[in-house]
């Protein structure tokens, strides 16, 4: 039985006191949906009682029945990846009665773990039998959350010049994304609305949508921010017999130029997805992070003329439809405003409401102008010499109000004349006076 342990003279990590034990992996065929069910024990050493506490879980991954033959039950790969981060942070070794693909085992134990453990976490062991990898699939897929990043990937790969990298399928998975972020909307409402939106968008895009489900969050509770790359790879590996290539839309921050594993357990897993997906990729499956070289603003520019994006782009964390006021909605709206593309998204967002609050929205942009997500939008607004933005930044409105209050209307109008727009404050005030 191959085992892995980290050997590093400088390394001070601790041995893991707990373990996950994968007892079995079974394919259950259904008329409309099929699932793989993993019988897994979570064995935790109770320090006070000095005994092991065993929790047994039946973790499933479900897909439409037409995809039954692609569900992987012969290898434990997906479930090892699923528990990997939690194991590192909470000290769980991994054992399995189901074999693991030898290429993935090699990549994780020889390439990934030595680098991760060196930078934090427990020195975990993976005790599994290995077996030759399963035959490769042929499909090229990506997730469809209907966010900016995902539409950017779709636009880029729908008609990719290299045919073998063109998208063939879209997916929506339930592997932890519908969490407390949606507490105001309600997790179930967020889930149902996301699936409904994905169905409509996929129909318009013209690709089959694979809707899957899982109860992975029953196994352990962990911040989705820290673990989303692992759970996304889990969903891909559960259907590895389908995929040849899977595109994972990066988050809009440049984690390639700024790659680091320092304190990786305390950060968004996107920060080191370059290494993760390199190691989860094998000769039969390529996981690609797409768009990591682009700013969110550049992505919005790319998708702003794509009809499905103009109808189904979704960014909100407060409501099941775009509220137009939360930071994520405003991020998109301000970028579209800077690009002069707001009207294309009318219906998907309440553009009239945005325009009514434009001054307040621009003040928000100015406040955020040094942050990675807003800086390119601010710079675009400055480049196009947006008069309202300049007026706010130059404190013109305050001076204008003072002049009006003093009855110096002519001087006030002269002050704002260089910034004149159709909804000129000066004209309104003069007309009302
Ligand atoms: Zn919102």
Key words describing this protein structure:
433 residues, alpha/beta, Rossmann fold, six-stranded mixed sheet, five-stranded parallel sheet, 16 helices, elongated, disordered N terminus, binds zinc ion
**Which percent range fits the helix content?**
25-40%
Structural class: alpha/beta
Give me the count of strands: 11
What fraction of residues sit in β-strands?
Answer: 15-25%
Rg for CA atoms: 26 Å
Detail the poorly predicted runs.
1-11
At the first level of CATH, the class of the largest domain is Alpha Beta
Topology pattern, helix = H, strand = E? EEEHEHEEHEHEEHEHEHHHHHHHHHH
Sheet with most strands: 6 strands, mixed
Strand order of the largest sheet: 5-4-1-2-3-9
Number of helical segments with 4 or more residues: 16
The number of distinct structural domains comes to 4
How is this fold's topology laid out?
Elements lengths: L17 E11 L4 E14 L4 E14 L12 H14 L1 E10 H17 L7 E6 L7 E5 L4 H11 L10 E4 L14 H19 L3 E3 L1 E2 L9 H15 L4 E7 L23 H8 L5 E5 L5 H8 L3 H6 L14 H13 L11 H6 L1 H10 L7 H9 L3 H7 L2 H10 L3 H8 L8 H8 L1
The structure holds zinc ion.
């Amino acid at each position: 039985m191959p085992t892995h342990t980290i050997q590093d003279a400088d390394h001070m990590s601790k041995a893991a006191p707990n373990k996950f034990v994968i007892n079995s992996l079974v394919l259950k065929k259904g008329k409309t949906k099929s699932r793989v069910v993993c019988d897994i024990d979570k064995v935790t050493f109770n320090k006070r009682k000095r005994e092991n506490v065993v929790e047994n879980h039946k973790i499933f991954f479900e897909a439409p029945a037409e995809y039954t033959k692609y569900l992987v039950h012969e290898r434990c790969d997906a479930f090892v990846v699923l528990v990997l981060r939690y194991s590192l942070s909470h000290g769980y070794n991994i054992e399995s009665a189901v074999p693991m693909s030898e290429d993935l085992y090699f990549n994780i134990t020889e390439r990934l773990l030595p680098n991760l453990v060196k930078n934090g976490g427990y020195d975990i062991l993976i005790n599994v039998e290995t077996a030759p990898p399963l035959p490769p699939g042929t499909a090229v897929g990506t997730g469809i959350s209907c966010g900016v990043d995902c539409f950017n990937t779709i636009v880029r790969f729908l008609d990719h010049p290299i045919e073998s990298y063109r998208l063939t399928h879209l997916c929506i998975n339930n592997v932890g994304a519908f969490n407390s972020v949606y507490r105001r909307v309600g997790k179930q409402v967020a889930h149902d609305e996301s699936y409904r939106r994905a169905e409509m968008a996929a129909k318009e895009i013209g690709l089959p949508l694979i809707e899957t489900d899982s109860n992975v969050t029953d196994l352990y509770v962990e911040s989705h921010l820290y673990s989303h790359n692992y759970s996304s790879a889990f969903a891909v590996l559960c259907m590895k017999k389908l995929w040849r290539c899977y595109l994972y839309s990066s988050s809009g921050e440049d984690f390639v130029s700024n790659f680091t594993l320092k304190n990786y357990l305390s950060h968004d897993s996107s920060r080191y997805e370059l290494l993760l997906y390199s190691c989860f990729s094998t000769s039969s499956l390529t996981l690609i992070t797409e768009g990591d070289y682009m700013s969110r603003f550049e992505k919005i520019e790319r998708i702003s003329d794509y009809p499905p994006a103009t109808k189904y782009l979704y960014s909100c964390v407060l409501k099941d439809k775009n509220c137009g006021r939360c930071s994520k909605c405003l991020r998109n709206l301000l970028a579209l405003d800077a690009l002069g593309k707001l009207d294309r998204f009318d219906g998907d967002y309440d553009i009239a409401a945005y325009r009514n609050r434009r001054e307040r929205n621009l003040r928000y942009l100015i406040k955020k102008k040094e942050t990675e997500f807003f800086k390119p939008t601010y710079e675009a607004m400055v480049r196009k010499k947006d008069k309202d933005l300049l007026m706010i930044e130059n404190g013109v409105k305050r001076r204008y109000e003072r002049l009006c209050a003093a009855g110096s209307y002519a001087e006030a109008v002269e002050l704002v004349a260089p910034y004149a727009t159709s909804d000129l404050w000066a004209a309104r005030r003069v007309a009302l006076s």
